[in-house]
Fold these 2 entries.
Entry 1:
Amino acid sequence: MFIRAPKDFWSGLMFLSFAGVALLAANGYSMGRGGRMGPAYFPTLLGCVLALLGLILVVRSFAIHGEAIGQIQLRPLVVLTACVILFGLTIQPLGLVIALTLTTFAAAFSGRETRVREAALLSCGLTLIAVTIFVFALRLPLPIWPSL
Amino acid sequence: MFFDVFSNIGLGLTVAASLQNLAYCSIGALLGTLVGVLPGIGPVTTVAMLLPISFTLEPTSALIMMAGIYYGAQYGGSTTAILINIPGEPSSVVTSLDGHQMARQGRAGPALGIAAIGSFFAGCVATFVIAFGAPPLAKLALQFGPAEYFSLMLCGLVAAIVLARGSVIKAIAMVVLGLLFGLAGSDVNSGIRRFTFGIQGLADGIEFVALSMAIYGVSEVAVNLEKKEEEVATVGVVGSLLPTMAELKYCTPSILRGTVLGSILGVLPGGGALLAAFAAYTLEKKVAKAPRNFGHGDIRGVAAPESANNAGAQTSFIPMLTLGIPSNPTMALMIGALMVHGITPGPRVMTDRPDLFWGVVASMWIGNLMLVVLNLPMVGIWVKLLRLPYRMMFPMIVGFCCIGAYTINTNITDIWVMAFFTVFGYFCLKLDCEPAPLILGFILGPMMEENLRRALLISRGDPGVFLQSPISIAFLVAAAGLLLIVAAPAIRAKREEALAE
Amino acid sequence: MNFKTTLRAMIAAPALCLMASAAFAQAFPNKPLRLVLPYSPGGIIDYVGRTMANALSGPLGQPVIAENRPGAGGITGTDTVARSAPDGYNLVLMDPAIVINPTLQPSMPYDLFKQLATVSIISTSPEVVVVAPELPIKNIADLVAYGKANPGKLNFASAGIGTTPHLAGELFKQRTGIDATHVPYKSIGQSYPDLMSNKVQFAFSSIAGALPFTADNRVRPIATSGTKRSSVYPDLPTVQEAGLAGFEVDLWLGIFAPAGTPADVVEKLNDAIQTVLKDPETIKALAKVGVEPRGTSAKDGEAFLKNEFGKWKKVIEDGNIKDQ
């Protein structure tokens, strides 16, 4: 017995795990009584449907052939996710200028070819435009510089 | 009656065409387009920022400007959806499906052009719909109670499955998962916080902008970076910059269908306008010839939802102007602005302040014309932007997404949400689980549950309430029929597959 | 975490008090102030907040910047001010949710009475009782009689769990003994279509929310909930006049500062608020949304806050609202 449709298998597994989390969390809420549907009712229902669908996908993946998953390169994904987190960590303490320059500069390193000077110029330019538009023109309450 | 309407439109045009009102109309349309393109600032924020200024204006001018911002933003949102595949507004999710494919094939110009032309046409028609049909349509809106809304949403969700290109089971699963994500946050009916895992920043649920920017923006970049630069780079401009006559003719039926659907759905204050673009796309995929082209850069896949979207945005003014019921937060702001001016929105506005009512209606037509005039010359500039090599584009996209997700609520949790959905979105793309059904489920989920529970609360738990009104029954039947249509090819394919083995 | 912050605030407060009053007393305010509005734009808080911010710039001599910080039923915005420096430059405008949230929510990021101080309760605004027009209900007595004659049939709308319209309805049920099912909406405005079609029978609505519908009798107003009649509905009796002694629901608004803000700074802010609330322009602007100026002293405000807290806590506990 082996997996014939890896995409279906793994997506089924993903749906199953989300269904598990949903059912587990919904377990803590009330199902409601009588005509008064509780906060757990709808999520539980959805969780069951999702689990069923996930199960069908997993079972079917052993029976029916499907495409293979394309190659997975972790570098772009990891670097980009790290960039988003970096922005989140820096925006409040360091302000928009530093956070955005850092984030866009770092993001440039997720590609296969990075030109450091170009990336540095690009990130500075972007930050300049962003600050002009969002802070000066639109007056959004964003910190520009580090707050001490 | 017929004559009245024309004399009223005449009155409206004289009001709207005054120099002052023309100026506010163009400011509104321009600002709206701008905030539609920019991440993290939507029409609500813009109208709110301008609210204090509006108190000093004539109420008609104020409303004309706010209306311009509203429909301008609907239009601007499609620009980013087409160019960089980031839908800033829920309604432009559908536009990105075919619009961005077109851009990748070097046809960003026609995509942007048809969006402008379709929107303009739909806007013109919707203006007349408001002029002729506002009072009867307002009555239709009042026929919708919780049960009717629930059935409508259910129908919309089934339609979401049609959005998908691939496996039906995966599409259904993505809709359900979207519904679950949509439920996070404070529950309207009990006040309990669900799926927040004790995080204060999730108390109001998962932010749409963070979710869509993660999946469509950052995840997409991650997938693209695995390819070689040549594969990702968009083709240079192919063919003409604007849609050709042949393309226009090809799109005409789609624009017409989209306009009709959008005009009707827009009238429903409980989320009808949101459904317009999705519904129009689904309809096209089922009705139009050569449906296989959809999702691969079919120009009709841009024309229909954009027309529907704009028509819906326009007719959603009907419940506000004639009933005083806000269809969305922007409308709520406009009602607030009117009340400060001492005007109570409701059926009497039409008779007490015909200059205001007809002036605003006429200004919408003028505003739509301005949008086309403003935006068609912009197409060339936008298309040039696409010539940038991808290694320069993607840091921009990432920065754009980060700012957008943060500024929308200045809530740091939205950034963590975006990081989570970047990873999630990446695997979805890798596993052929399409995000569009997820997004629709996400948007409709909370509204659907709210109306389901409200309907059952009022009927004291009797599910028969969904079969008591003809409107609700009609939607349920439509949903069942749609489900059959969707499932039929899948079932047939499976049987063939089984027979082949 | 919560305890720690509180502790820190308690230790820091007196010290800061001394420092601040010495250094800043003369100078306050010497930079722009921030008035946080913890709800989305468009509501009463937003309008009153912006009106007040504009007006306060006059007597304070510094711009007052209104900032929307919506989220979690007002908790997010209030929390940002509760955590900010107690120097008088950070203020928040809040409605009764500020005293309802601590009872209703299982956990709060701040302690209302330890981390926030009342500057002034600035305004008062009754709620208006509206009923579906097709019902033969013309006054409060009719409503009670109808409820008693049709047990289990009445529904009342609200703007969500724990909002003033909800708790007002619960208080009304508790006081009159009628049975009615609570149907929450996201905002009171959304409930009006169902009120007009008699799917929901009555509601305690904000005046601003009710005006578009009562102006032409698409829903019927039958009473207001204040101690005296509302200037917007001078012909409507109050619920008290209709026979429910002591029944009062007030959609008041208050301005709060972080606890530990120096007393003289609070005093200065309170003076500015009092001045502004006597200005006919401000009074006129507030009246447009059915809000009347009040302007308590800081001390009276604090007492009022404690009283309101106790009142709603009792309604929530008696009505078993948390257990739904």
Note: The mean pLDDT of chain A is 87.
Entry 2:
Amino acid sequence: MEDDFDQDVLLDVRRLSVTFAGGVRALRGVSFQVRAGEVVALVGESGSGKSTSGLAVMGLIERDRGAEVSGEIRLRGKDGDEKEITGLSERELRALRGNDVAMIFQEPMSSLNPIYAIGSQICEAIRIHRSVSRAEAARDAREALDLLGIPNPDRCMVSYPHQLSGGMRQRVMIAMALACRPRMLIADEPTTALDVTIQAQIIAHLKRLQRQTGMAILFITHNLGLVAEIADRAMVMYAGEIVESGPVADIFGAPRMPYTRALLQSLPRLGVTRASGTRIEAIPGNVPSSARWPSGCAFHPRCRYVVAGRCDASEPMLEACDTGRHRVRCLRWRELEKVAS
Amino acid sequence: MRLEPRALLGWTIIAVAGAVAAAAPWIATHDPTQTGVMFLRGPSAVHLLGTDELGRDIFSRLVFGARTSLAIGFGASIVATVLGVPIGLMAGYVGGRLDLALVQLIDLFIALPSLVLALIITAMVGPSMQNLVLILGFVMWPTVARLVRGQALAVRTSVFVEAAVAVGGTSTWIIQRHIWPNIRRVVAAQFAITVAFAIFTSASLSFLGLGIPPPTPDWGGMVRGGFSYLALNPVMSLAPGAAVAASVLGFYLVGSSGEER
Amino acid sequence: MLTVVVRRLLLAVPNVILITVLLFFAVSGLLGSPAALMLGEDANRETIAELNASMGFDRPLIVQYLDWMGRALQGDFGRSYTTQERVADAILPRVLPTLELAFLAILVATLGATVLNSLAVGRRVVQPVIQILSVLGITMPNFMIGISLIFLFSVELGWLPSTGWSPWSDGVIAHFVHILMPVLTLSAFYFGSFSLVYRAEYEAVRRRLYVQVARAKGLSATGVSFKHVLPNSILPVITYIGISLGHLAGGAVVTESVFSVPGLGSLFVNAILGRDFPVMLAVSMFIIVGVVIANLLADLVYTLVNPQIRLD
């Protein structure tokens, strides 16, 4: 199956595990691919490991603070060469960050340095990777702001972060991330901190820019409503593992994993796109802690379809179902197909 | 109560200094003011730290000097606290124009060089023990007042004090029951720090020649006296200097670790 | 921006006037009769009264103050009781050494505290050492640091001259050889306090999201440290420089006395010990007004580097 799209795979993550100092296992053997020009959503509750995945692709997991990273992260750079991120030196990583892959973060209010003007912060991002004059960098920065529909880009260039609204700052962050035209963008909950109307605008801009530039986006969110709106494909994460993945239509139309079903049921109406911040909270219990890791399926303590002696005995594998692009990690998915529908 | 190492070191230094000051007559091997014919001798069995330019026993003067330093340190800190706490409480609790005026005054005083101020006043009124305590307390109260004001303001605007006002508590009752218990620890920590800097400043005054007049043993004065003989008998100035530094360190450590808790 | 500057300047004026009034009244009031001081204890009462009258000391203090202030503004601070030299002539050559000493001490302390702490964060051995040095810097009295340095580098090792001053005209190297220990002595306290202030802020700033954003742009760890973390962490240090200038003046007085630096501080101590009223008054005015002005400057620098205040 994977061979089908091997040629235009941009990001190929294989068996990625991350353990933080203190033994917290944030990722436990995650594998996924993102093709060029594709928008893939990474969905899950907080603590599921979705943000860690984004940081790992950026090479921003701080190994000097005792974090351990294993597995492979292959990224095809702008020059067409494939790079294996976990094996790169800090110097090589720096050349890659912001240039081949860029990231935007959840909190636009604190993502910008308060003491530098917007223009100089975008120019910095440009001049790290391209040896251009200040004037050229400033021109490109202004263009990037213009692209995000910022009303008065010249004025924005000389503004300081505290003079801009949250929505405007997030546009600036996107402009900054896209300034070097990366082929891959990691968006970590880019709209969570914003109010609903602004959220819709930012998503609209992201979609438009994605179409215009053909970049791929790894869209990290806990908001299923946004997934339906922006993504082609979705991957649901639970406790550091991918528990279900497939085209958005499959995930929303025929969810196989009980966890995904629970997530969808926590949405007011199934399959209807909602712009508002729909939170996932309807599932009883919490993501397991490293200290008390359940045996068998990691979700079984919270699962309503749990079968004693089976779900807590053996670990399920991620296996193909339906079309083959749809994959699920559940021991009982075949039986449950009938139960649910 | 578990002490962190910093605080433990601080308390140890204070305990040693306090014990030496209290038991000075028994610890000292000589009369600290008794001059002799053995000038500027190095350490020996008779004179543990040698003798000064008048033949006085340095070790004994060092031991008795602890009394002077601690007395001035504590005295000045008490004066600063007695002045600073009510003024700070008033500014922070009453607020309004009074606060504005007091803050202006406090900030003005804090910006002034306290050592220079202390030098001028000491030069005018003369350096007796009593004067030094009053002068150092006077130049140090603004720091205490500012701290107390900030704390009082924070506590006053907190929910439980607002609730107390709502049920009709009187000012005295609110200050006693709600504000004071909350700022007590901060005031205690600042007290220790004030002791530290009172010892620091009084030793500096003595070093400049405006300390307790001789022959009373006084660390800053001993450093001043020994400075001229640094090459001949370094212990004469280094030992009392180290004693000052250690005492300041002890009170500072206790105060600064108390602040953080 | 301009209104902020003007407002601060306007606020400083009454402060300066208030200080000069307090100082003048305190010094004159506490000192007693200057004529008696000049003539000595065995002078008879008539002579003292005569001299007081001839010098204007019998007038009300407020008149004397206005008179003194009026002359002072024209550069006339009277004559020294002891040397009969014009006070202005005694002060002027001593301003520069003090300013240079203070400036270099602040510079050394700021650079030392920011650079050392930026490099030391997270390092097991270096960080506690710098922390201990900081606490020692704060608690060691200047005279003890100075004497220890003299003992070590002049008496024991013989590397540096123990005291004295070498003007710029005698060569740059000689100048710095003489000023090295005074600068180190005076900077110790500031190194210590700036370290504590800076390190706390540095730790907080390091966790801000824009620091991670800067790394995500592809900036190196050192680049992030010095371009994004340091400039943000240094703001409270600038405020602290302003607050601590009073302490700096006191430290300079002691340091200049230890190393016989011909600055305002040693002039001040000599004037006090010699009860030289005009010199004492003029120098203390200089020092205190200088501290207030420098405090104002620190405020303005803070305003200039902090866009959140500058632009409001």
Note: The domain at 5-20+50-259 of chain B is CATH 1.10.3720.10 (MetI-like fold).
